[in-house]
Amino acid sequence: MSDCSVVTKSWGELTTDELYSFLKLRTDVFYVEQKVDDEELDNRDREESTEHYWISDDAGTAAYLRVLVDSTAEHLDAHRIIGRVVVRRDRRGEGLAQALLRQVISTHGGEAMLLHAQVYAAPLYAKAGFVPFGDAYSEAGIAHQSMYRAGE
User: Fold this and answer.
1) How many C-beta atoms surround the C-beta of residue 88 within 10 A?
2) Fewest C-beta in 10 Å: which of 32, 67, 109, 145?
3) What is the full DSSP assignment across 65-88?
4) Which residue range or ranges hold the N-acetyltransferase domain (predicted)?
5) Distance between start and end Cα atoms, the chain
6) Rounded to an integer, what distance in angstroms lies between the CA atom of residue 124 and that of residue 98?
């Protein structure tokens, strides 16, 4: 497996090259590959409390996710929301998303967290302690399942 060093930065710490690299990955996967038609740039990336986690290689960002903070919990006590989890096609199956999740849990494991998983990826999140709740639903034309992880 190639390097899996996780980088974490807030909006104000990002370089333009870092921003371009993970936005390109998100666009390549969500828009081109998955044909998502929802708004990608929702201004949540720019919030002071948003954290960006990624793994890079010589080709750019190999895997990415962001962690948002919502003042109102969507479910139980979860104010941290993991989203935009994405892995470049040529690096899938290497455990990069799990490495990103481990870093988030290492940083925020004492807090409850929530995510909206694409249904096929729910087992990945279950390995990290996330439990499904509610019914599956369509988000951006893709079947999703809300998942919750209690704080430790």
Assistant:
1) 19
2) 32
3) EEEEE-SS-SSTT--EEEEEEEE-
4) 9-152
5) 30
6) 7
- Look up residue 6 and give its two tokens: 């996780």
Task: Give pTM, 2 decimals.
Answer: 0.91
CA-nearest of 129, 121, 149, 107 to 7 is 107
The pair of structure tokens assigned to 151 is 């704080």
Domains of the chain: 7-111 (3.40.630.30)
CA-closest candidate to residue 149, choices 47, 78, 88: 78
Question: CA-CA distance, 39 to 97, in Å (whole number)?
Answer: 22
The single-letter code of the amino acid at 42 is D
Rg, C-alpha atoms of the chain: 15
For 28-64, the three-class secondary structure string (H helix, E strand, C coil) is HHHHHHCCCCCCCCCCCCCCCCCEEEEEEECCEEEEE
What is the per-residue pLDDT across 68-101, written as a single tens digit (0 to 9) for each?
A: 999 999 999 999 999 999 999 999 999 999 999 9
Q: Which amino acid appears at position 119 of this protein?
A: V
Q: Which tokens hold the place of 57?
A: 């290689």
Tell me the two tokens of residue 95.
């455990």
